[in-house]
């Protein structure tokens, strides 16, 4: 029997880093050079046939960069199970803001068992990189990101890979034990299929 899972995923990061462009590329396979700032929040739905038994509906919440200065994020973040945190590799200030977004996220939403929601860091506009970008492995480990990817909405680089990495971590949380009956015997929450089958993407850093 097919099971359907609905996941609310946030896409956050400073003004103009490419959040809307990443979503448009991922969901509609289009890209535009034209910048129109998102007001408040936008939505998009991506349906993934994850495996033979599982359809995943990813509800993407495209939060306007300017919302970091507003007071609506607590409402927008509610019941999210994962996040893409985006910065623009050509503007250092947007990288500095990454930790502010991450702190905002962690202070306003946690999973049932109190753990932070998995977040993947996207170094976007990588098509504009002259030289090699510094590696962000240790930055991610130190700051609680489950992985990072150099992405380009323009050239369609690594967007599928980054979302796949995030979904794998979301699924892992879904199946993590929640009830301890007696020592050594654990009861799994609703999702019991083994998501480990999918944990084979090499760029998805796991620790
Ligand atoms: P807000 O809605 O204001 O928070 O911005 P945003 O993060 O949604 O940015 P948006 O997707 O609107 O992109 C801003 C500008 O960057 C647009 O002009 C896009 O065309 C451009 N852009 C986005 N992604 C890329 C990319 O990967 N490469 C290049 N070269 N430009 C990009
Ligand atoms: Mg936008």
UniProtKB/TrEMBL annotation:
Keyword Calcium among record annotations: no
SUPFAM superfamilies on file: P-loop containing nucleoside triphosphate hydrolases
Record-linked Pfam families: Ras
Family membership: Belongs to the small GTPase superfamily. Rab family.
Gene Ontology molecular functions: GTP binding; GTPase activity
Superkingdom assignment: Eukaryota
NCBIfam families named in the record: small_GTP
Organism: Lates calcarifer
Topology term for the membrane: Lipid-anchor
Intracellular or extracellular location(s): Endomembrane system; Membrane
Subcellular location, principal: membrane
A GO biological-process term: phagosome-lysosome fusion
Keyword list, A-Z: GTP-binding, Lipoprotein, Membrane, Nucleotide-binding, Prenylation
Gene Ontology cellular-component annotations: late endosome; lysosome; membrane; phagocytic vesicle; trans-Golgi network
Function per UniProt: The small GTPases Rab are key regulators in vesicle trafficking.
Name of the protein this chain belongs to: Ras-related protein Rab
InterPro entries registered for this protein in UniProt: P-loop_NTPase (IPR027417), Rab29/Rab38/Rab32 (IPR030697), Small_GTP-bd (IPR005225), Small_GTPase (IPR001806)
């Amino acid at each position: 029997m097919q099971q359907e899972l609905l996941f609310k995923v946030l896409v956050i990061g400073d003004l103009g880093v490419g959040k809307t462009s990443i979503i448009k590329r991922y969901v509609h396979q289009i890209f535009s050079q034209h910048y129109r700032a998102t007001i408040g929040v936008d939505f998009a739905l991506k349906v993934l046939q994850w495996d033979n038994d599982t359809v995943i509906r990813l509800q993407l919440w495209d939060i306007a960069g300017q919302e970091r200065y507003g007071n609506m994020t607590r409402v927008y973040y509610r019941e999210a199970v994962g996040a893409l945190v985006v910065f623009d590799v050509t503007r250092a200030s947007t990288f500095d803001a990454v930790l502010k977004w991450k702190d905002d996220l962690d202070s306003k939403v946690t999973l049932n068992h109190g753990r932070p929601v998995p977040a993947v860091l996207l170094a976007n506009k990588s098509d504009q990189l002259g030289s090699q970008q510094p590696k962000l492995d240790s930055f991610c480990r130190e700051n609680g990101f489950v992985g990072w990817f150099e992405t380009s909405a323009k050239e369609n680089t690594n967007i599928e890979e980054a979302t796949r990495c995030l979904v794998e971590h979301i699924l892992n949380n879904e199946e993590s034990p929640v009830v301890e009956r007696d020592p050594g015997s654990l009861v799994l929450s609703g999702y019991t299929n083994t998501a480990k089958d999918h944990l084979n993407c090499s760029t998805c850093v796991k620790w």
